Write the structure tokens for this entry.
Amino acid sequence: MINGLNPLSTFVGKMVNNEARAGRCVTCLSPRASHGLCRDCRADLPRNRWHCATCALPMAFPSPGMCCGECQSSPPPFSRALIPWRYQFPVDGMIGRYKYHGHRKFARPLLNDFGEFLKQELAPANRPDTLIPAPMHWLRRWQRGFNQAQDIAEYLGAHLDIPVAGRSVRRNRRVKAQRSLGRAGRLTNLDGVFEVCGQIPHRVAIVDDVVTTGATVRALARVLADAGACEIQVWALARTPG
Ligand SMILES: [Zn+2]
Ligand SMILES: [Zn+2]
């Protein structure tokens, strides 16, 4: 079963990242792991089972085909969001170790399972022409060393045989964390942040690691729609509860 990720000592962290342990479960170190997770830990991942039909906001009860209040009052410029997990333990810790510490081993099981999830969810008619990773400001990318959205998009692109357009949208400036702002502030905070600098196909999927308030993917989808995209999906590993 899953051990706490947060209390992992540096020593255990090193063991997990040691290539000699590459075949073990990243959360409990069981040797019986497939793509980095054992069967019990995989079964314990917080699936986003009940969610808004459009933006995948987690819901507390089964609600087939229902949309959340925000999507009803202000429909987003994308048609649907495919997000398999909730941003909760241990998915939050796994994404954090991947994103902030560059430990790709923690993302490996999520990427593999996300690829399989998409293969099941995507009807041939719903396949996007291109994947568009959520762009990162150049300074943040330089500080972090990589853009996790680009990394995720490249994995999924190879897994599903869909091209990735990593340079067709640019992020012009850094913004305050959306979560710290009210609704009006969130919208003005993102004014002019994204700029299209390439040809945008008709059917695209925006790829990101985590969707929090949804305002960022809305802003990105808006500039893609203005540039000619007519069917836009959002693909992300995890969605924060509302
Ligand atoms: Zn395990
Ligand atoms: Zn919604």
User: Anything to note?
Assistant: Strands lie at 33-34, 37-38, 80-82, 85-86, 130-133, 169-171, 194-196, 203-211, 231-239. The chain has nine helices and nine strands.
